[in-house]
Amino acid sequence: MTNQVAHPMMKFQRKVSSLVESNVLKPSDSIWKLALLYGNDWSYWKKELLEFGFTMQDPVSEVLVVEAWDED
Questions:
Q1: Which domain of life is it from (predicted)?
Q2: What is the pLDDT of residues 33-70, one digit of tens each?
């Protein structure tokens, strides 16, 4: 039996989804607003988002619609 470990971006996506559901963020807010919530951890997440082709001006909703975080 093999256990699959969730990709870190999947965990990030769930956290962002939770922030939207709790009305801390709106789906139309720019990704850069996450920097205000992530503080010291933001540089890591920003780097990850940029590697997946996001810009900081993209809406948060773009992160929420990703179905798979494959690093091919």
A1: Bacteria
A2: 999 999 999 999 999 999 999 999 999 999 999 998 87
Residue of 40, 36, 68 whose CA lies nearest to 52: 68
Dihedral angle of Cα 49, 54, 59, 65, to the nearest 10 degrees: -80
Question: Which amino acid would we find at residue 36?
Answer: L
Paired tokens of 43: 């540089």
The position carrying tokens 């179905």 is: 67
How many whole angstroms separate alpha carbon 68 and alpha carbon 26? 22
Q: List the one residue out of 56, 67, 63 whose CA is nearest residue 20.
A: 63
Q: Collapse the DSSP code of 30 into the 3-class scheme (helix H, G, I; strand E, B; otherwise coil) and give the result.
A: strand
Prediction pTM value? 0.85
Task: Show the tokens assigned to 50.
Answer: 């940029």
What residue ranges do the domains of the chain occupy? Answer: 8-64
